[in-house]
Design a protein that fits this description.
Layout (H helix, E strand, L loop, with lengths): L7 H18 L8 E9 L10 E5 L6 E5 L5 E8 L1 E8 L6 E7 L5 E6 L26 E5 H4 L10 H9 L3 E3 L5 E3 L2 E2 L2 E5 L2 E3 L16 E7 L13 E7 L9 E9 L3 E11 L3 E12 L15 E12 L5 E15 L26 E17 L3 E17 L10 E22 L2 E22 L28 H4 L11 E22 L2 E13 L3 E15 L4 E12 L6 H6 L2 H7 L11 E13 L5 E19 L7 E23 L2 E21 L10 E3 L4 E11 L7 E9 L23 E3 L5 H7 L1 E3 L2 E2 L7 E2 L2 E2 L1 E3 L3 E3 L2 E2 L14 E2 L2 E10 L11 E9 L7 E6 L3 E4 L4 E9 L1
Parallel strand pairs: 1-7, 12-15
Antiparallel strand pairs: 1-4, 2-3, 2-5, 5-6, 8-14, 9-10, 10-11, 12-13, 14-15, 16-17, 16-49, 17-18, 18-19, 19-20, 20-21, 21-22, 22-23, 23-24, 24-25, 25-26, 26-27, 27-28, 28-29, 29-30, 30-31, 31-32, 32-33, 32-34, 34-35, 35-45, 36-41, 37-38, 37-42, 39-40, 43-44, 45-46, 46-49, 47-48
């Protein structure tokens, strides 16, 4: 069903209104994720104090910045992530000066810092009270700084940013191949990189991520999104990149590592510049034999490599003007991991009669991004920003060299997703108000080329026409639809692949205004956003965003609540094919016809939470959410053996859950955090858009594979003194995602008796049974032999049936909503041990570092998912070890 349509006149009116708004107000914010503290340090006579150390630190995020004043006593600390900070000034012969500074805007904070004559001590010691550990913010969020993720053991080298978010953010469920489910949604996550909106997929099977070496800090917003964020907002990740501005002496590192699966990684980063300019560059390359998570615990045909370069250039032509240009280019190449079913299967070429060998499908992704930004400061309270961006992902998928090695069908793809746009923002900060507003216009240019051919000689003879009669005659010649329609694309009979080509621009226009009002114990976040979407359908929505927080200062407690209306935009990846797929492709894949184009979803969400500091060394933050959406999204896998996915949409979804984070700031060298969450994700048929298999029937409710009862990550990090080695340890627990189709006693249509006493597993191949860890009594499935009993192969009494990797519902209790089959719970343990200064040269400038990391210490055999309609089957990483050597300057 099409949403409300927006006329061209309305779009023009909206643009004109936005331009007039910007021209007249001259005073709202850059959608940027960093601010600046500047000022002068003077003595009691108001004379400049050169060489004073100005130090800022956040005890929870652990972000640290330090500069020395110049000959005029002036200082500038740029690129500071939004957060409250302790600021400390020390100089020989003067008493230490300390004060708190809250950085919440891109508008520079200017300070006049006067020192008093006293002690000659210059050591900086930051002490905090319980009140310093909490934030008066209505939005639940997590701050992560380099001080943490430099030492956090990360599972995925090729998707390190996703691994970092999964481990450090509450309510985030781990999935395969660098995917993560943010607060009950699949892929409804967006990144804001120095203010540039990136709302397309960032998993390594869709795109290439920004390198972790380029990131200064992250803020992960799990609460109701502020008005400045749109499109995909279940989880918003604000990224502040590293800068060379003000670094008169070059600082950087060169690292190399080698580890399990013949994985090798080499890279460097360096930042340098001066008061008026700066440049930061990071580059790395990865080669590994386990690039993607395979459908077997034993790894084969999973090689891949990635080359990545990021550059940020800053230039200040005047004190009021700053020009910033971000650039990135990444290329990745990887094999599609095989299962035993498509490895050395002994298929014979029906044309030549020769063995064709194993399936050998591969993919290549090329990503580039360029984002220039200009900002101008008006007076002491206003900053204006104008930016542009262009980002492109080109995804190329290659079939096996011999198409008959590809089981069932052989497919290829060449698609481009080019996102380009302009954004302009203003910010005004004064008194109790932090006022923002802006307009963004962007187009996403989609080009999709897709081919598919039939490689199974039994496929057409297995079909029937509309009356149930065979489609082919006794000789195998097609005599009725759908065989007559598909016969030209049957490669086993000399046909050629079917070609699909599509091109479509997706246009979006948005504008927002918001104000954060702080008065006494209260903080109010008031905003409204307007979104206009023009894709396969046209849609528009006004979106109020409201939040309130109250600080009970005597007990160091913050109570908060927030509400947001959000328009969730469709996934752009394979959107054309999913909205206009031909009957030919649907018939070959066995998918139902496309019900309608994928349309924007409309969401109401509520959050309520509490933050509590307990003494000076513990802070607890918890949040409850409830989200109701008309139009709920996911992807549907083309087949279980390809990383090609189509967006699909259901009538509605209801998502609720609890998330929490416990932080232990630095206590004698020990830092720790625990993040946890529980999310219920219920989706409601019918399927209303997209391309993929229908789940259930009628208006049936089902738990989608985002649903997980509980997950937690505990991270401990200990370094008693800076000159001693450090250790980092992770414990990750996942109770298990909802799995795909699993035979069970009493499942609808299962078993020859259809009752609770017998399980029929004939719907799974022997290898799929082995992947699921199925057993019947003492008989376990192998890659070539299914489970069996005295009743015969693939048949098992319910009392003897089970799985080592999945939770099978008890006989007669399976229910897609209340008791679906799930992946079995798993505990994973990771460890990193390192020394940042192995040789102790005696100088701070040059250091040699050494680091040893082991992932999955116990070599736990476990699944992320099994035969998921949305992602297939994947195992977690086996035990892997890495040694890294670095040179730092």
């Amino acid at each position: 069903m099409l949403r409300k349509r927006v006329s061209s006149r309305a779009l023009v009116l909206f643009v004109v209104t936005g331009v007039l708004f910007l021209a007249l107000t001259q005073g709202l914010n850059a959608q940027s994720s960093s601010g600046m503290i500047q000022g002068t340090v003077t003595d009691p006579s108001k004379a400049a104090v050169p060489g004073a150390k100005v130090h800022i630190e956040n005890p929870v995020s652990h972000h640290v910045g330090e500069v020395e004043t110049g000959t005029d006593g002036g200082f500038r600390i740029p690129n500071i992530p939004f957060n409250p900070y302790h600021l400390t000034v020390t100089a020989p012969g003067f008493n230490t000066l300390s004060q708190d500074v809250d950085v919440r805007s891109s508008v520079p904070i200017t300070l006049e810092l006067g020192l008093t004559v006293g002690s000659a001590a210059t050591n900086i010691t930051v002490t905090e009270s319980a009140a310093d550990l909490i934030e008066e913010d209505s939005n639940f969020h997590t701050d992560v700084d380099r001080g943490l993720f430099d030492k956090l053991p990360l599972e995925s080298q090729s998707s390190s940013v996703s691994s970092l978010i999964t481990l450090s953010s509450p309510g985030v469920v781990a999935d395969s191949n660098g995917l993560f489910h943010g607060l009950g949604d699949h892929a409804e996550n967006s990144f804001s990189v120095d203010g540039q909106p990136i709302t397309d997929q960032q998993s390594k099977i869709f795109s290439n991520q920004i390198p972790a070496d380029s990131i200064e800090s992250l803020e992960v917003i799990s609460g109701a999104p502020p008005a400045e964020f749109g499109d995909k907002t279940s989880l918003v990740v604000k990224v502040t990149t590293r800068s060379g501005l003000g670094q008169s002496q070059a600082h950087g590192s060169v690292t190399g590592s080698f580890g399990s699966f013949h994985s090798s990684n080499a890279g460097f980063d360096v930042g340098y510049g001066g008061p008026k300019w700066g440049n930061f560059i990071a580059a790395n390359g990865l080669n590994t034999n386990r690039f993607l998570d395979p459908p077997e615990f034993q790894v084969f045909h999973s090689r891949g490599n990635e080359e990545n370069i990021f550059d940020r250039l800053d230039f200040k032509p005047s004190n009021a003007d700053t020009i910033q240009i971000n650039g990135q280019y990444t290329r990745s190449w990887f094999q599609t991991p095989n299962s035993f079913d498509n490895f050395n299967v002994g298929v014979v070429d029906p044309i030549l009669g020769n063995p064709v060998g194993s399936q050998d499908q591969r993919a290549e992704i090329k990503t580039f991004n360029i984002a220039p930004l200009w900002s101008h400061v008006f007076g002491a309270s206003t900053i204006y920003t104008l930016g542009a961006f262009i980002r492109q992902d080109q995804f190329l998928y290659f079939p096996s060299n011999n198409p008959f090695a590809d089981a069932g069908q052989t497919v290829s793809q060449n698609r481009k997703l080019t996102n380009l746009g302009v954004r302009t923002d203003l910010s005004y900060v004064k008194g109790i108000n932090n006022f923002k507003g802006g307009v963004t216009y962007q187009q996403t240019l989609l080009t999709e080329n897709f081919t598919i051919g039939i490689t199974d000689p039994t496929f057409l003879p297995s079909l029937a026409d509309a009356n149930g009669n065979p489609c082919v005659d006794a000789t195998g010649a097609p005599i009725a639809d759908p065989c007559t329609t598909l016969a030209p694309f049957d490669l086993t009979a000399g046909g050629t692949p079917f070609l699909f080509h599509g091109h479509k621009p997706i246009k979006e226009l948005s504008a927002y205004i918001q104000d954060t009002i702080t008065e006494g114990h209260w903080t109010f976040n008031l905003g409204i956003r307007g979104d206009f979407y023009n894709g396969f359908v046209e849609d528009r929505q006004s979106e109020p965003r409201l939040g309130v927080a109250y600080n009970i200062k005597g007990s160091n407690t913050v109570l908060r609540a927030s509400y947001a209306v959000v328009m969730e935009t469709p996934f752009n990846e394979n959107l054309i094919l999913a909205s206009t797929a031909s009957p030919v492709i649907a018939d070959i894949l066995g998918f139902p016809p496309v019900p309608s184009p994928v349309t924007p979803g409309h969401r109401n969400e509520f959050h309520a939470g509490v933050e509590q500091a307990l003494g000076r060394h513990l802070v607890v933050d918890a949040d409850y959410m409830w989200k109701y959406t008309n139009g709920g999204y996911d992807f549907s896998a083309l087949t279980a053996t390809t990383p090609i996915f189509f967006p699909i949409e259901w009538a509605r979804s209801k998502i609720s859950g609890v998330s929490a984070r416990v932080n232990v700031p630095n206590y004698h060298g020990l830092t720790a955090f625990v993040v946890m969450g529980s999310v219920a994700a219920r989706f409601f048929n019918p399927q209303v858009g997209g391309f993929g298999a229908v789940l259930g029937g009628g208006n049936a409710v089902f738990r989608i594979d985002h649903d997980q009862k509980f997950q937690e990550t505990t991270h401990l990090q200990y370094q008693p003194f800076k000159r001693l080695p450090w250790v980092g340890f992770n414990w990750r627990y996942d109770s298990g995602l909802v799995s795909g189709a699993l035979p069970c006693a009493g499942c609808a249509g299962n078993g020859p008796l259809g009752d609770d006493t017998l399980v029929d597993t004939s719907g799974l191949t022997a290898d799929q049974q082995f992947e699921a860890g199925l057993f019947c009594g003492s008989v376990h499935a192998t890659p070539t032999t299914p489970i069996s009993s005295n009743l015969g192969a693939n048949l098992c009494p319910a009392a003897a049936y089970g799985s080592t990797f999945l939770k099978v519902p008890a006989p007669g209790t399976e229910d897609d909503d209340h008791n679906p089959p799930r992946v079995a719970p798993r505990h994973l343990f990771d460890l990193s041990v390192g020394d940042d200064d192995v040789l102790h040269f005696g100088a701070e400038r040059y250091k040699i570092s050494l680091r040893y990391t082991v992932i999955n210490m116990t070599n736990k055999v476990a699944l992320y998912n099994f035969l998921s309609t949305f992602s297939g089957t994947h195992y977690v990483t086996p035990r892997s070890q890495t040694i890294e050597l670095g040179f730092h300057f």
